[in-house]
Amino acid sequence: xxxxxxxxxxxxxxxxxxxxxxxxxxxxxxxxxxxxxxxxxxxxxxxxxxxxxxxxxxxxxxxxxxxxxxxxxxxxxxxxxxxxxxxxxxxxxxxxxxxxxxxxxxxxxxxxxxxxxxxxxxxxxxxxxxxxxxxxxxxxxxxxxxxxxxxxxxxxxxxxxxxxxxxxxxxxxxxxxxxxxxxxxxxxxxxxxxxxxxxxxxxxxxxxxxxxxxxxxxxxxxxxxxxxxxxxxxxxxxxxxxxxxxxxxxxxxxxxxxxxxxxxxxxxxxxxxxxxxxxxxxxxxxxxxxxxxxxxxxxxxxxxxxxxxxxxxxxxxxxxxxxxxxxxxxxxxxxxxxxxxxxxxxxxxxxxxxxxxxxxxxxxxxxxxxxxxxxxxxxxxxxxxxxxxxx
Length: 391
Prior knowledge:
Layout: H1 5-19, H2 33-40, E1 50-54, H3 60-70, E2 74-79, H4 89-92, E3 96-99, E4 114-119, H5 125-135, E5 139-145, H6 175-198, E6 203-208, E7 211-212, H7 223-230, E8 232-237, E9 243-244, E10 247-248, H8 249-262, E11 266-270, E12 277-278, H9 279-287, E13 294-299, H10 302-307, E14 312-313, E15 316-317, H11 332-336, H12 344-355, H13 362-369, H14 375-390
Parallel strand pairs: 1-2, 1-4, 2-3, 4-5, 5-6, 6-11, 7-10, 8-13
Antiparallel strand pairs: 9-12, 14-15
Helix pairs in contact: 3-8, 5-6, 7-12
């Protein structure tokens, strides 16, 4: 089945929206008994910190909060107050919840002191600049949640924290290129504002890749837990040598708190897995999560994939053009600074369990699982068409 040019452009636009923002998504998570037990068993920190989280009620923040409180720290959040936290509900009763607006109302942050500020909601350069300057004399550390999107276009074989960033919109870009470039430019300039206000020895910049795990509302990783649970012949996109990178949101969240405790200033790529991994290796390892029989069909023809609207299936991103190096980002500095990794099967299983729990509405489950345009539902036909081409 061929996709019309207009249809392909529409699908690609949606793909760009997902690819442009590897770090952020929002979601709700009910803390199950297993998670609560793990949180309860976390060792206390020797030094108790007073932490302010700008944001904190979506994907990354609740995991940070749960871990921080389990370590004995105090937490305040600053939000618009429009989204009630439903993640780790019991934990939030211990959180001071400040209300304001980063666009034009920071009054709740005035004349207050904190040991650490974690900026999860700096989605405009102005927001980061305003809050960092307001708090620079009343806070010890400023942790800014950036993104590996600052490296776009991903041109290199090995992208490090020292890779030169694009900080101004280049001339001659197409609308799609501008769309992708804009996010990285915003994040890169926001990093600079945080460092300018707090100084290099009081600023910690974290650049996560695609964060995955329970509560991700983007659905971009969800295909894999659901598909691996079913078993059978599974479509795997990409060539044999295509690399993937991703990280469990909980590994990132917990690492933030340890970095703050140790005052480990600097810039870090929050990237996993620990060892380099190719897409087919990801599939083979993740599929072992479930006690079902699985086989794999690798579709290695990029044109076939693009004709069928498949530009990415996170953690796989088609490594062409400006996305060539998106899964070639170095992370040894982060490992040396204490970033640790859950087993992939744990991430897959916990994401699957969350999706099937009361934390996700039946309406949302139905909409995703019955989407006729998803690979989940197109897979059988795609494999049949691919079989005809190959044979």
